[in-house]
Amino acid sequence: MKPKGTSNKTILTFCREIDLRLPSDRKTPSVTAIALNGSGRLVAADLGNTCIKLINKQSGECMSRTVSTCCIPLCNTDCVKKYRPWGVSFIDEDRAVVSVPAAGKLIFVDTRNDQLNVVKELINHRQCRGLAFCRGRLYVTYGSPEKKVRILNTDDTILKTFSNEYFSEPWYVTVNENDMSIFLSETLTKRVLHLNDNGILVHIMDLKQVIDKPRGLLLKDASRLWVCAYRFNGKDSMAEIDLDKAECSDVVGEGRIPNWYSDRY
């Protein structure tokens, strides 16, 4: 399946930007994932500063201290561990989980009372990256050399494990809550893989001709998939893939055009 580019555009109205920089930051934030709950709390994985941040969506302000994903309580500038966060997903209204690939950890945090507190850590998840939560199950993707997807209970019980020859670096994941099918972004091969609920390959979406380096994924509805595309030395973008028509169109903003992968989200 090779979605063809079209001249159609999906228009978004830009409302505001949220500055994720904090006075305590040592580097420019590099946010690899964010998750938003129903009450307007944002949990952000700041890879650049090796920490988790809790932000109020309305005020744009940090609501508590950050949580280090490397050394506790604060990572030394000479630290060589580089335990940086990657993915984020809320598992209920108050709790979120954050993946830390190099540490092989899934860190569960609680956001109640506008405070960010570590609840527990699950270990032995080497190169865990993309996260999604659907119908009480946690979906985790694993980069090289693991190259797999796991479905877990939040107590670390493994329900299913998928892998196939097309898995290279499955960095992000989203799940269709209607049929429980799974979408994975393969950033390095510029593909999105569509699996059914048993991990059987349904489609390979070759995006080389339409977007560059697919990363974050979001199902807008059952037939439309949004894909964030990252360019290291170019203009980042977002695309909408019509799964029924196999067409790809740009998602653009009215007014101020957002930079989808900047230090401000």
Automatic annotation (TrEMBL):
Record SUPFAM superfamilies: NHL repeat
Domain of life, per lineage: Eukaryota
Protein name per its UniProtKB record: Uncharacterized protein
Provenance organism: Dreissena polymorpha
